[in-house]
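fyi for ur records
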Amino acid sequence: MKTVLLPDPGEGLVEAEIVHWLVKPGDVVAVNDAIVEIETAKSLVELPAPHAGTVVALLVDEGQIVPVGSAIMTVDEGQDAGTPTVSGPVVGEVEGSGAVLVGYGTSAAAVSRRPRKGAVVADERHELVNESYATDAPVSRPVDEVSSPAPLSAGAVPPPLPEPGEPASGASGFNGVRAKPQVRRLARDLEVDLSTVTGTGPDGTITAADVARAASVSGGNGPQPGRVTRTPLRGVRREMVNAMINSVKAPQASLWADVDVTETVRLIEALKKRREFDGLRISPILVLARAVCLAMNRSPEVNGSIDLDRGEIVVPDDVNLGVAAATARGLVVPNIKAANQLSLVALAQALNGIVTAAREGRITPADCRGGTFTITNVGVFGIEGGTPILVPGESAVLCLGAINKRPWVVSGPDGDQLEIRSVATLTLTIDHRVLDGEAGARFLNDVATVLREPGLALLF
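which gave:
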């Protein structure tokens, strides 16, 4: 009998929510079959079965938040094993077979095993996979004996575990349904039976568009007029709620400026034609990110934070630039480490990377830790401006509004003239314990200067 323990879902987290069981007691599972969807503060992932056998009991209800290391399921392998099993937390490499076991994060009990070259036979490879999951804790509760399938043959090596956020067993969930966790959640919300949906994605994978189309065709069983929908605070949404509660503890002040960004728009169009930027999405947020890093040279205190326990203001040398990203599951703020040390091309690559990861639900807790300054772009929603709220632990956040054509007074050799220019609103929110109005105004003016005349970036 094996007891499956909840592994560390990634980067030192201490708890996760059991979102949806993909198996039930009596089901027969193979190694790496998806058994459960869990949600952490930043991601929704599936856990694979570490051993083949028959599911005896599910020890945690859906919607329950449990600490890492908690028993979540028991499996009968038809052996007198009697030791708990952690589902997918370790990384091990089996040489000769090409199979790589990839877990979802670090664990205090996790041990990376690498066999000596040429010293592993089939039986040892199978033993290595099983040993890497075993712990010394006793089975958490007794269960009735049930029949189990035959164990893996001596020469069999389980297939590799999935990448975080990707479905196990070739994107297949239990019962052969091919869909990612986010798509399954959408299907549950819309009350769509995935077994009735034809997937249009790679290898028949069901996409979000497939689910939405099925819901519209069937008419769905969604909320009726007069009903009240209650949605539990989970994962990213719960984390955002906690962050906003902590944010209001800081005395916040905001400054804003309307900026003629016509030259920035022209620069963006020129960069798109450069070979160095082939395949990269070039947008105003790239120039804004660069302008922020340059302005930090003259206002390093904007990159600081307050340590109340020690009574200090802490200013790091590196700018870990957070970029707010709206996802289907809520707002996440991954950051680019040491963005001030990157070239414009490298900065564009980093921005494209985190935007893609956020869109695909691959942002990890490590991506969101250690930020020192954040930028957000409400202009993508057609909004001209907004008052951003501080990310806890940071002292400033900058918001870029939509770039619109406006009549603008332009000074020239013949005096002032009225022209149609591209104009955007910048809004800076500061922690008034760390920054006063003068420091915030100087920084905002420097950022505006670079956006107004990108050539002046040479002065910073």
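The CA atoms of residues 327 and 359 lie 6 Å apart. thats all i got for now
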